[in-house]
Amino acid sequence: MDAFSGLMSGFQVAFSLEGLLFVFIGVFVGTFIGMMPGLGPISAIAIMIPITYSMDPSIALVMMAGVYYGAIFGGSSSSILLNAPGVAGTVATAFDGYPMAKQGKAGKALAIAAIASFTGGTVSVVLLMLFTPLLSAVAISFGPAEYFALMFLGLTAIASLADGSAIKAFISATLGFMVVTIGIDAQTGTSRFTFGNPNLLEGIDFLVVALGLFALAEVCTLVLNRNEKDDGQSKNIGSLRLSKQDIKEMSGPVSRQSFLGFIIGVLPGAGATIASFIAYITEKKIAKNPEEFGKGSIKGLAAPETANNAATSGAFVPLLSLGIPGSGTTAVLLGAFLVLGVQPGPLLVQDRPEIFWGIIASMYVGNIILLVLNLPLIPYISKILKIPRPLLISLVIIFSLIGVYAISFNTFDLYLLLAFGVIGFFMRMFSFPAAPFILAFILGGMMEQSLRQTLTISNGSFGIFLDKPIALSLIAVGLLTILFPLLKGRRKYKVS
Amino acid sequence: MLAKTNQKAALVVAVIAIVYLLLSFNLPGYTNALIDADVIPKGLGFLLLFFALLLYLDKKNETEADKEKRKISKQHVINLLVVAGMILIYIFLLEMIGFVVMTTVFIFVCSLYLDYKHHVTNVITSVVFSLAIYGLFNYLLKINLPAGILPF
Amino acid sequence: MKKLFGTAAASLLLVTAAGCGNSSSGATDEDGNWTPTQPIEITAPAGPGGGWDTTARMVSQVFEEEEIIDQRLPVVNKAGGGGAIGWAYIAGQEESPHHMFVGSPPLILVPLNGQSEYSHEDFTPLANVIADYGAFVVKADAEWDNLNDLFDDMKEDPQSVSIVGTSSPGSMDHMQFVKIAKAAGVDVTNLKYISDPESGGLTSVLNGSVDVFTTGVAETIEQVRAGKVKVLGITAEERLEGEVLSDFPTAIEQGIDETFINWRGFFGPPGMDEAAVTYYEEKFKELNDSEAWIEIREKYGWGEMYMDSEEYAAFLEEEAESMQALLDELGLARE
């Protein structure tokens, strides 16, 4: 069967009455679970697996895919409204989404997030449809050396995340990197900095750090300011309507990050979180007005929201065409496939074209449903901000606590959360930015492991990077991003 | 005075770096590793020490806004400590007493402490919120939050 | 305000005091037959979605839906420490007949690596239900066609071959390779093993960064069907059943007399009453033979391996000894 008739059979699945119904159920449940504290796509899929047992495999998988990207879609509301990311992929969303909400533009922020997610999702499905067989080669082109280079490139952007002193940004980043070295080292099995505490062996979960540094630190600020005469602004939801100017502003990041996010999603191991961060820092790098980032920039909100949804579709490339789960979430999704007797892999497109293409086709529908479902809900969801301050503070604290508890069901992590809240508060007090901390925390762990994997393979020789064109060019770009501002600064200095 | 804040912060960072380095040098070795578990941590430790030095030497003055951020009244400090204390009690008792009771009590007490005067709304919100979340997690999603003293 | 606050705090204390009651221990009739009197909590020592969690949830489902056990069996996740947190939790439920957890080789390996206070010896084995096996995979155009080709090269220079697994040295992926390679005469103290926790092992083999991927049998089937990789050997006693699966040669038939079983079964807290153990043994046997369970096992591709409490304990003892010896040799056994 050729690709075209395969695609047609896929559309038949997706547009059948049953198909539409279950795509709807999938994205609805996904969005809903994604909004819950601590429950992201992994739990959403795991929860839904038993329900699919007796279903037709193609319909069931169309639904499961919907649960997956629905959960990523749903996670952004709490980031924007409360500065409390419920899912790792939406941490970068809070950087500009929350400041926007505080300026009384919550409605607009949620609308931008929804539209950016929708566009990222849809563009990437087109890419998925056209290029999956080709891209499977890209997905396996990344070995340890290439991953190291990619993480290195990401880390070179730290300076750009500073909104004051660059030294403080570097200190934050180094601290973030240090925190991620806690736990069992994968290459040797040595437990590092665990003080014999079994709770630390698996390392500290990303959400513990993110909710502590962002949500709890924000709670402190809210507690301090709770009696300030409200100018009414922070409770204002504002209009949902985007002006022409707004659309123009977001069109750049959205179109770029749909592609970039997708490509990063294709790489096994990278995923939505890394994609959203890389999107944020690249947009900040190339923006004409980078100083607006972190203060409610439309670009800064649209970029990560586009990228995390695009990466979600990207993650289907290695899953469907190679049977390789690129992340914890797709590993659970792979489990869902297996339960239904479907084995994703290089032969799926020949053996079960209706499933392969059905999932892809359904994602068009799913993204439209998500948009239609979410836009009208925005005024209701953003009513959260109307809750009186004291009550809101209590609820944000509880949201963060449940969010962490639902990951490990372990109270130790809750104490850690509180500790990171305190650290986050002091970092704010002394103007150490939190974003570089969290960026280094995400990229650092993978960077260290991939570097040591690479050097183990090469018997300790750095020459291995010279033999790998992709790795070499990524490192070169990284070095340029460091050196370029230095050179530019120097020239300015000379002129003056 | 202004320059001193940065230098004090630099000293704190340096102490963190030194403690981290000490721990790194005490990591057990693994004979079969080409690059052992301690290499990157040592590098990070020295890097942090270097940044601490740079911060210490940084003559850039703090802006007024930065200084303003640190002005907290004694009352506010007490507020923060009490809220932190309530979170600690919540965490400590969560698995013993159970999610529903603790969450209801926490939301009510914490809001009350932060001067929320509408007691009826407060009671309704705290009860409905915790019951709703509990029901959702435990019955709909089958992810069990601690039941504690309640029989369901 | 102050007063109201005080009242609330006092009521909090009251509630605390009330929370300290404890649960009953089930019912035992005159013949010494024990039956549960309250819900039985199954702990998965990991977060939702993984192998332990899935096994626990499936077992709970079959017990409930087939009415093998006349109580609810809620699954509780206790993640962290590679299982150590969940084990510590169960160790704290001493003698309770209403708690159990799902275990597999890490229950032996993690304590030997010095990462858990509790090991299989601290718990009451109830029954084993599932067995999986390891597979060693290379790229389809690799120079080796069987384990002996590979091990011959490694005997000359162990460092000439790189091996990747998902978990760290001293854990399952590593140890299954070490166990077989050692039996073939390779110097296992000098292996070039890298770990890729982001599940990039298969990718690394496909793009040629690494030579051998050590993993579970099920993960390899589709890649073999597509002709991308070949399986040099598996760690099972004899060939497995099923399309593609039956083509995988065992290490034993290649003259390497060694196996590695990824067993999965259930354990109770320390000192569980004999009568309760007998009860669970029978129930797990019933589960093992039920249509519903067989169907689930096929869906997930799990092999059958039922052992009762006594057989299980003996089996675990043997496994632990052989792992201890290997870890000592590798210098990985830690206190």
TrEMBL record, chain A:
Transmembrane regions: 20-46, 58-74, 110-131, 137-159, 166-184, 204-225, 259-281, 322-343, 355-381, 387-407, 414-443, 470-487
DNA damage recorded as keyword = no
One Pfam family assigned to this protein is TctA
Recorded hits in InterPro entries, A to Z, give: DUF112_TM (IPR002823)
Annotated DUF112 domain residues: 20-439
Q: Give UniProt keywords alphabetically.
A: Membrane, Transmembrane, Transmembrane helix
Domain of life, per UniProt, equals Bacteria
What name appears for this protein in its UniProt entry? Tripartite tricarboxylate transporter TctA
Task: Give the organism the record lists.
Answer: Jeotgalibacillus alimentarius
TrEMBL record, chain B:
Q: Which Pfam families match?
A: TctB (PF07331)
Taxonomically, the superkingdom here is Bacteria
The keyword Transmembrane helix belongs to this UniProt entry's keyword annotation = yes
Q: Which residues cross the membrane?
A: 9-27, 39-57, 77-93, 123-141
Record's InterPro entries?
Answer: DUF1468
Keywords for this entry? Membrane, Transmembrane, Transmembrane helix
Span of domain DUF1468? 10-146
Can you name this protein?
DUF1468 domain-containing protein
What organism is listed for this UniProt entry?
Answer: Jeotgalibacillus alimentarius
From TrEMBL, chain C:
Under the heading PROSITE patterns, the entry gives: PROKAR_LIPOPROTEIN
Question: Signal sequence: where?
Answer: 1-27
Q: What keywords tag this UniProt record?
A: Signal
* Region annotation Disordered: where it falls in the sequence: 23-51
InterPro entries, per database record: BUG (IPR005064), Bug_dom1 (IPR042100)
Instruction: Tell me the domain of life.
Output: Bacteria
Family membership, please give it.
Belongs to the UPF0065 (bug) family.
Name of the featured protein: Tricarboxylic transport membrane protein
- Say which species the protein is native to: Jeotgalibacillus alimentarius
The organism's lineage? Bacteria, Bacillati, Bacillota, Bacilli, Bacillales
